[in-house]
Amino acid sequence: MKNSYAIFVLSKYFSIFIRNFVKLLYTSFCTDMNLEKKRFLYALFFPTVFVVLIGLVFACQVGLHIDLYWLGVHPGHLNGLLGILTHVFVHSDITHLLNNLLSFWILSVALFYFYRDIALRILLYSWLISGTLLWIIGRESWHIGCSDLIYCLAFFLFLSGLLRKHIPLIAISLTVVFVYGSLVWNLLPWMPDRPISWEGHLAGAVTGITLAVIFRHQGPQRPPELEDEEIDDNEPYWEEENASEEDESIANSNI
């Protein structure tokens, strides 16, 4: 009964948010707005919807006192396959939720802004592939949270910018390293007693690196370099002037 009521409340508030948010976007796109602002609004749409949905799931989980651990990934068990799709929506506490949502929102907005042509595919593949890898390599436990998506996006943005050799994308790569460089310390079980799914982090990192290599020729690319002007093989102008003066002097001497 509680589960049914939670789904009802969740769907109600989520539909209200989506309706209002879509109305705002439609109004903005129909007005005289420059292309850059439209690109920015598009980059905000999917990450914001995803973050709000995760937040609503957590609100229902806390408000109705229900435990949704069974929506996580249970590696090696058939009852854990559903978690490949649902584990990103479940978080253990408010600290876990806020840490993940802030990082995911920032990285996904960067993805949809700079890689808008392939962003949806990257997000979908990140979700499915990292979840599947986690189900394969994870330890005997229930793995919840969207940290695997965070690692996937971080590694994709970092490596993809370097592979494309495009200055704005390289700047994003360096920014990711500066802000999220410490993520690498949670890729391996340095402290196995901590309740952190390092397997999920590793699965996300491997997925992000793989997608960056596979999609390196799709999406934004380095613009072609301007061809250098053809070098004039003629003599420099000062040598031409000297030659013309010599010809005049020779002509005058012949007269």
How far is the first residue's CA from the last residue's CA? Answer: 118 Å
Radius of gyration (Å): 28 Å
- Please mark out the parts with pLDDT under 50 across 5 or more consecutive residues, or reply none: 226-232
Q: Order of SSEs, N→C?
A: HHHHHHHHH
What is the number of domains? 1
Could you tell me the number of beta strands? 0
Tell me the overall shape.
Answer: globular
What's the CATH first level? Mainly Alpha
CATH superfamily: Rhomboid-like
**What is the helix content?**
55-70%
CATH architecture descriptor: Up-down Bundle
Give me the secondary-structure category.
Answer: mainly alpha
The CATH topology comes to Rhomboid-like fold
The averaged pLDDT comes out at 79
Protein model, in words:
The chain contains nine helices and no strands. It has 255 residues and is mainly α. The protein has a single domain (2-214), classed as Rhomboid-like fold (Up-down Bundle), CATH 1.20.1540.10. Residues 226-232 have low confidence and may be disordered.
Keywords, separated by commas or semicolons:
single chain; 255 residues; mainly alpha; Rhomboid-like fold; 9 helices
Topology:
Layout: H1 2-30, H2 35-63, H3 83-86, H4 94-114, H5 119-137, H6 147-164, H7 167-180, H8 198-214, H9 237-254
Helix pairs in contact: 1-2, 2-4, 4-6, 5-6, 5-8, 6-7, 6-8
Q: Care to give the gist of this entry?
A:
With 255 residues, the chain is mainly alpha-helical. Helices cover 66% and strands 0% of the residues.
